[in-house]
Amino acid sequence: MNAVVRQESSSATVYKNLIAAKGSPLTRGAYADDLIPFATFLGITSVSNEHPLASVPDTAWRELDTGHVKAYLEHLRTMTSERTGQLYSTATIARRMTAVMELLAEATYTGVFERSKLEYLKARLKPPKVTNQHHAGITADEQARLLKCADEQPGLKGLRDYALFRLLLDTGLRRAELAALKVADLIMKDGIPVLIVRRGKGNKLREIGLESYTAHVLRLWIGDSGQAAHPDWPMFCQVRRAGRGSVARYKAAYPRNHLSGIAVYKLVMWYAAQAGIESEISPHSFRVAMATDMLDGGASMQHVMAVGGWTTSRMPEQVYNRKSYREPVARYRRAILPRRNANGKSGG
After folding, report:
1. Which of 86, 94, 187, 319 is 20 to 30 A from 111 in CA distance terms?
2. One-character DSSP codes across 212-228
3. The sheet that has 192-197: what strands, in order across it?
């Protein structure tokens, strides 16, 4: 379709100011990603490898009509995810519309989008109510099957994947948080293994207490992979199979490169298929499982929010006290996760 708004390289500040106002690289990246479909819908293409909206001049936003925004919402309702083949979840639609509305608010503050249009959209536009239907957790049986399947994989691959799954179940880390971890982020504090999450949502730092066995297998992976000698290297990296047949071995590949969020997603999907898990799970399912396990075991909502890095209007940031919440998640989990045996088979 023809572009709804014109593109130029000069006087284009609306998008740039919106992104610059976001507090962390993760948040800036998320907003940039969520606004690409909007640019595509408007017929705006990338210029010089910049974000498509970065080249839209401020005055061009006057040409945008409320009808375009309403049509975009209806467009999102019909879109399917390339990853799952399913219609966009309500959370995805709501998130992308939030990014659009904040972009238009920035244009309003700049004086290039009519305030009456913005108020009209706020009053009349009704994104779908966010539901949890696409965010299933992982049952105790499924947790055990995933860990058993990982433990049965040979060498470094099995060790890495087992440690990664244990860590996700103990912490409920977001994919981006997991991907950003470094070797130095696993420490001991007051005799308790602690994971430092430095790239949390909103660029907030938090500390999460780990079960001692989870910390143990993490150290095994870090040591056996060679990452331990380099505190600033990623905690998790790729592994590659070298050799054939019985002499084949796995070794760390590209040890200075973090295991990406997409790689984690593909890993979870592969193991779910191998373990015969029929329910729809994803890396986010580990986050749901963590919160469910803690609440079912009697943890306070404050503790759950501190571990997961959640903030709401009811739980002001000053209530969050990292020093108070170092007990491992395993303290609340009713089912005992299987441990690794020396021969590579999961045991009780």
Report:
1. 94
2. HHHHHHHHHHHHHHTGG
3. 186-189, 192-197, 206-209
